[in-house]
Design brief:
about 375 residues; about 15% strand; binds pyridoxal-5'-phosphate; EC 2.6.1.57
Length: about 375
């Protein structure tokens, strides 16, 4: 920066008033080094496994043509997804991560002042994309056991509601909604209100009662299923997610997409990942086994941990959330605190999980 451009000069441009209501996303911080310890980041629900060689190869090959724009229609990936899911290609819309597809969903449904109903605490991107659009968030508190209160959510729907978001399993608390709960809920929501079922962690679910939301999309034209390659498929850094919706909604979503948003590297990586699905799902099984181990150990230590159906566990620490995260940071372990509420810890490398269990155990002892 030169001396003629002071950083604090007032800017005489008009920005939207809605920005004042947009909360800042708190990104998972990079792990802080501690002398003599391997640092681990278990704060962003990332997949700890490095990409498969076949996926790295696909990306390296795609890199050779990065002077070109990607296929704007995302044709090959859409076709592969359509076959994998058993849905028409016209029912798919891709985006730069499912967060971007969610922003498109708000854009295609909400005028300023319209309402979006979702549970809270839930995914922190929800209030951001809603506020940015000028729509109004209607946050319905979770139940005491950190689950969606779908009855209360159905009651919160008004004639201003355009969108309802169901996050299952819920980030950051962990429980998933059951098929019965979802069936009763969808039956109560007016047919002209879009119900988004955000299944970012579907592949990690193990409870029998957890439905595959595609069954709901098939039965109810207002249901949209949101999925991502960021978590189970391990492509968080490449940004690719998608929605499955009826043709009219999917077409609107494609209109609202950033042109050429999903890069060729991301498209090729996603195609290669679908082809390597079996190999990737073995890793998911290992992460699920680790999650079960960590969850059981925490319960054994005396923690009141909610059901964990994603690749993370929730410690309801309340006012101790930030101090606990600091204690983890001092041991080169980055977790994600939600001040005054709790701490979300992703299932990471075995050593990271063991370190978390060590800190969690000591924490309870020090308070006895
Ligand atoms: C991680 C996550 C996503 C996926 O985000 P991407 O933009 O696809 O990386 C979506 N929804 C929830 C609830 C998540 O936790």
């Amino acid at each position: 920066m030169t001396s003629e451009q002071p950083a604090d000069r007032p800017v005489p441009v008009r920005l939207r008033e809605a920005l004042a209501k947009v909360p800042a996303y708190s990104p998972g911080r990079p792990p802080a080094p501690v002398e003599g310890m391997t640092a681990y980041k278990i704060s962003s629900n990332e997949n700890p496994f490095p990409p498969l060689p076949s996926v790295v190869r696909a990306v390296a090959d795609a890199a050779a043509t990065m002077n070109r724009y990607p296929d704007m229609g995302v044709v090959a990936l859409t076709q592969a997804l359509a076959e994998h899911l058993g849905v028409p290609a016209g029912h798919l819309a891709t985006g730069t991560g499912s967060v971007a597809v969610l922003a498109q969903l708000v854009q295609i449904t909400c005028e300023p002042g319209d309402e979006v109903v979702y549970a809270w605490r839930s995914f922190e991107a929800y209030p951001i994309v809603v506020a940015l659009s000028g729509a109004t968030s209607v946050q319905v508190p979770l139940t005491a056991d950190a689950r969606h209160d779908l009855d209360a959510m159905a009651e919160a729907v008004t004639d201003r509601t355009r969108l309802v978001l169901v996050c299952t399993p819920n980030n950051p608390t962990g429980p998933a909604v059951t098929g019965d709960e979802l069936r009763a809920f969808v039956a109560k929501v007016p047919r002209d209100v879009v119900v988004v079922i955000d299944e970012a962690y579907l592949e990690f679910t193990t409870e029998e009662s957890v439905p595959d939301a595609l069954a709901f999309y098939r039965e109810h034209p207002n249901v949209v299923v949101l999925r991502t390659f960021s978590k189970a498929y391990g492509l968080a850094g490449l940004r690719v997610g998608y929605a499955v919706a009826q043709e009219e909604v999917a077409t609107a979503l494609r209109k609202a997409a950033t042109p050429f948003g999903v890069t060729d590297l991301a498209q090729q990586a996603a195609i290669a990942s679908l082809a390597a699905r079996d190999e990737l799902m073995v890793r998911v099984e290992q992460l699920v086994a680790e999650r079960e181990r960590v969850h059981a150990a925490l319960v054994e230590q005396g923690w009141d941990v909610p059901a964990a159906q994603g690749n993370f566990v929730w410690l309801p620490l309340g006012e101790d959330a930030v101090p606990f995260a600091q204690a983890c940071q001092a041991r080169a372990l980055t977790v994600r605190p939600f001040a005054g509420e709790g701490v979300r810890c992703s299932i990471g490398e075995t050593e990271a999980n063991d370190r978390l269990l060590g800190i969690a155990g000591e924490w309870l002892h020090s308070r006895e």
